[in-house]
């Protein structure tokens, strides 16, 4: 019984400390490994990518961010370079976030320029007061060729929340 009470107390403390991290005027820096061979699109086989993000909390729980990314697929040795913007809304009580983004993507193998809006849902798990591990599920919609270039996948990131 003591163990259960202690676990509930620790969970409450973690939830209270997490809610203080998503405050207005904080700066966010993050990086993630995307694809992880768990993404799906019409032409990709094994897919892995890197994504860097930087952002600013305009209001409590509301982050705007810039995105730079690189994806590589073994299907025809295809590579994507991406540049975009996005926003996240954090649900303070539990660390879950909902995100929207829009990316300009250039595919080197197909010489294709594409606009890809996307959505994501993830969880910010705090390792310390300012560092998080952020697993998330995402979907990016291709306007050029939906069946071949739209992707659904998993990414795992590391986030750092800094005071300005």
Strand content: over 45%
Strand count, sense and barrel status of the largest sheet are: 8 strands, antiparallel, barrel
Rg over C-alpha atoms, rounded to the nearest angstrom: 17 Å
First-last Cα distance: 43 Å
Q: Which residues sit in consecutive blocks of at least 5 with pLDDT less than 50?
A: 15-19
Shape: elongated
User: Residue-averaged pLDDT, rounded?
Assistant: 84
Helix content: 10-25%
Q: How many DSSP E strands? A: 9
Q: What strand line-up does the widest sheet have?
A: 1-2-3-4-5-6-8-9
What's the total helix number?
A: 2
What does this structure look like?
- This protein has helices spanning 2-19, 146-149; strands at residues 26-40, 47-59, 62-73, 78-91, 96-107, 112-123, 125-126, 131-140, 151-163.
- The protein has 164 residues and is mainly beta.
- An eight-stranded antiparallel beta barrel has the order 1-2-3-4-5-6-8-9.
- The protein is elongated, with a radius of gyration of 17 Å.
- The termini are far apart.
Keywords:
elongated, 63% strand, 8-stranded antiparallel beta barrel, 13% helix
Short characterization:
13% of the residues lie in helices and 63% in strands.
